[in-house]
Design brief:
single chain; 174 residues; alpha+beta; 4-stranded antiparallel sheet; 3-stranded antiparallel sheet; 7 strands; PilP; signal
Length: 174
């Protein structure tokens, strides 16, 4: 019992020693300075500008990362009135899409002839020589292992028509 009394008295003496030395003068001075500051000098919150939506209007223009196309009007081909698209011909399904959307993915050959496989317009399509492809009356004139050759009939801008050769090269798997 005596031991407990000694331990309790030591604890009380140590606690009393902590409170005896009040050296908080610097903290008290800081608090007095803060309390002495004038009240009501709080700056108002800044006004935020509302967001204005931006509409990109140059999407139909040439990409700035591609070189400009130089057209020399003196060398430009002149079209003729002899060459023109057949207006009475029934359009095929693949003529409703741009030729740039198609890519050649393979060839097939059987007793009926050689066929090319082109991907575009939502799937893979089998075409042969004489079929039409693209919006410019592109007629397939040759099919070989590496490419499909097409002749398009395009306007020359002056009332005539030009034949323009195009090729779809084989797109190999990567």
């Amino acid at each position: 019992m005596k031991e407990r009394l000694i331990i309790c008295s030591l604890v009380l003496l140590s606690l009393a020693g902590c409170g005896a030395n009040n050296d908080f003068g610097d903290l008290q001075a800081f608090m007095d300075e803060v309390r002495a500051r004038p009240k009501g000098n709080i700056e108002p919150l800044p006004k935020f500008q509302p967001y204005e939506a931006f509409t990109y209007s140059a999407s139909a223009m040439r990409s700035p990362f591609q070189p400009p196309v130089k057209i020399d009007l003196t060398i430009r081909q002149k079209g003729t009135k002899v060459i023109k698209p057949d207006e009475t011909r029934v359009k095929q399904f693949l003529e409703g899409f741009n030729i740039e959307t198609f890519e050649m993915v393979g060839t097939l050959a059987n007793q009926q002839g050689v066929f090319a496989l082109v991907r575009g317009a939502g799937g893979v399509h089998r075409v042969r020589v004489g079929d039409y492809l693209g919006r410019n009356d592109g007629k397939i004139i040759a099919i070989n292992q590496g490419q499909v050759d097409v002749i398009e009939i395009v306007p020359d801008g002056e009332g005539g028509w030009l034949e323009r050769p195009r090729s779809l090269t084989l797109k190999e798997r990567q």
